[in-house]
From TrEMBL:
Gene3D superfamilies named in the record: SET domain
Organism: Cephalotrichum gorgonifer
Protein's recorded name: SET domain-containing protein
Region (Disordered): 198-217
PROSITE patterns, sorted: SET
Domain SET: 51-190
Length: 217
């Protein structure tokens, strides 16, 4: 299998979910239980490496992630459309190895399972927060059912058109609804992420809601 262009050579690239040995049988069983309420993602949409996005080095000094990388669309992506799965190490909340990770997000808060892409993952680990780049995110995290893997996963979706509007009804994504070819895919890391990384008393600008994260993104 080929690796995505720009993938760090020291990190394992995942095409399937990885489970921590610390997960209980009940937690694994829950992850393997489908729900009709979840978006059902067909196997054809999760063929890796993904061709609709690309890992791109950031060289703009004004960009908050300058010197790192971001994820750009290689074609126009429609509002509300699936982009890619967020793969990493699925682990219990109590797993100390994921503490202070910048790549850890909840799969299911109720059963205490999150996924951490710090030490291994896929292209989704390069999705940046929108703050300091654009006025609003153009994408979001959602829980899905992966038909290829037969389990619940987190995924990145283009924001629906309704969520790209600000309170005045104007587009907040810096352009038309959806994500244009060459545009950076940007989410909101949420209050949980910023709350652990700002000085006491400081607040991140425009944090309107808390993403489904265990203290990180």
């Amino acid at each position: 299998m080929s690796l995505p262009k720009g993938w760090p050579p020291h990190l394992p690239y995942l095409t399937t979910p990885c489970h921590s040995k610390l997960l209980t049988k009940d937690q694994i069983s829950s992850l393997k239980t489908n729900s009709p309420d979840l978006p059902q993602i067909p196997a054809s949409a999760t063929q890796a490496p993904y061709t609709s996005i690309k890992i791109t080095p950031i060289t703009d000094p004004s960009h908050p992630a300058n010197g790192q990388s971001g994820l750009l669309a290689t074609r126009a992506l429609k509002p509300g459309s699936f982009v890619l799965l967020y793969l990493g190490n699925a682990h219990p909340e109590s797993d100390p190895s994921a503490r202070d990770s910048d790549y850890d997000i909840w799969i299911d808060r109720d059963i205490g399972v999150a996924v951490d892409a710090d030490r291994l993952g896929n292209e989704a680990r390069f999705v940046n927060d929108y703050r300091g780049i654009k006025g609003r995110p153009n994408a979001e995290f959602r829980e899905v059912w992966s038909m290829r893997h037969g389990e619940r996963c987190m995924a990145v979706f283009v924001l629906p058109e309704s969520k790209r509007r600000d309170k005045g009804g104007k587009s907040g994504g810096g352009g038309s609804a959806g994500i244009a070819k060459g545009e950076e895919i940007l989410v909101s890391y949420g209050k949980g992420f910023w709350g652990h990384r700002l000085p006491d008393g400081a607040t991140a600008p425009d944090v309107e809601s808390e993403a489904d994260v265990p203290g990180t993104h």
